[in-house]
Specification:
Layout lengths: L1 E7 L3 E8 L4 E9 L12 H20 L6 E6 L3 E2 L4 E2 L10 E2 H4 L6 E6 H10 L6 E7 L3 E8 L4 E3 L2 H10 L13 H12 L7 H4 L5 H22 L3 E5 L10 H7 L4 E4 L6 H7 L4 E2 L1
Parallel strand pairs: 1-4, 4-8, 9-12, 11-14, 12-13
Antiparallel strand pairs: 1-2, 2-3, 5-6, 6-7, 9-10, 10-11
Helix pairs in contact: 3-9
Amino acid sequence: MLKLGIDIGASHIGLGLYDTTKKKLTKKKYIPYKAPSKIFNKIFKGIITKNYVNYLIKKIDSFLNDTKVEYIGIGCPGGVDPEQGIFYGSKELVVGKINFKKEFSKYNCDVYVDNDCNCAAVGEALNNEYDKFFMVTIGTGVGFSLIRKTRKKILLAKDETIWKIIELNKKNDTKAKYIKSFKKLSEIYNERQKKKLPREAIFEDIRNNKDILEKYITDFVDGINIISKEIKIKNICIGGGFSLYKRHYFRTLTERLPKHNIFIAKNFNDAGILGAVHLPIKRF
C-alpha cells in the first residue's frame, strides 16, 4: 500500500510516495516555492491562504496522477493541532490557518499533521539505533524535537519541553539566537556581499567568509551546551537543508562538542517526508 508524505517548507514543497511493502520512498519530488511578500500578510492573508491550498492540491494531483493512497501525512512549519489536523499558519509562508483534514477531504483517506521538525525526527528515528536523541532542523527556520524510542513506539517530547528549549536558545532573553537558521546565515553573508544570493552561496565562497561560518558555529556550540545541560541529552542530530553541507562544518562541531555525539540525519532533507508518512506510529 502507498502512503503520501508532504513536507511543507518556506522555500519548497516536498512530496513522497512510500511503499509499505518495499519500505522505502518509491517516488519523490521537491517543488520550489516562493512565498509572497510579507507586506501582504495581514491584508490579503485569507486570499493568499486559499490560493496556497489550491496550489498545493494541484501539485499533489499532478504528483499522484490518480494513484490511491492509504493516508496522507503532512509536516508543517510552526504550530499545529495534530488531533484536528490543523496548521496554524506561517509568517515565512505568508499563510494563515489551514484545516488539512477538511481541505484534503477529496482524497477520501485519513490525514495526519504535525510539526515539520517532529516529522524529520520521526523519519530519522526509523533509521538510527539511538533510544533518545535531540533533533535540530536547520533551513529557512530552526526546529527542535526530542525523541525517545521504545520497542514499538516513537515518543515525542511535549510542547512544554520544546517551548523551554526555544527559550534556552535565546541570547539573554533577546531576539538573537544561539542556533540560527540557514536563512539567517545566508542573510549575514548577503549583507556583506550586498547581493541576494541563494543560501548555499556562502559555501561556494567559504574561503573568503570563514569568519561568518566561525561565528555561526561558535553560537551553535554554545546553544547545544546550554540546551543539552538542561534536557540531559548527548545525541544530537542535524537535519534540514543545512545538513547537506556537512563537509564545511561537521568536523569542527565534533571537535568542539567532544562530550556529545553529533550526527547528520541519514536521509538528510528526505527525513521530513519519511516522518510524515509514519506519523500514525508516533506518540507524545
